[in-house]
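Check these lines:
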Amino acid sequence: QVQLVESGGGLVQAGGSLRLSCAASGGTFSSLIMGWFRQAPGKEREFVATINWSGGRTYYADSVKGRFTISRDNAKRTVYLQMNSVKPEDTDVYYCAASPGRATSIYARTNDYNYWGQGTQVTVSS
């Protein structure tokens, strides 16, 4: 069983930066595909970014490409989401997700993930 705990959310001005962290316990972290999703009230959870085992392969939603960066530190069992040039429309609850998978795989669908964190709120003021 894998437990995920997000941190780093908060209030940030438009154009600013924020870094989210997701610490994992249980399981073999270096063999997990990791992802970030976000969800606004009344809306479906949407994909943000994903990263494979080694961190050598990443994939982003078009809405964040070029502004957000996903990375991981397997020694620290942590995945990060660096958010730059944030916009008011980035305001959401951000969730970390994990799933076993192949070394080169990345997943962009909520149904692909077995484990989820509790979420961290990000609010971008204009």
About this structure: The CA atoms of residues 38 and 46 lie 5 Å apart. The chain has a mean pLDDT of 97.
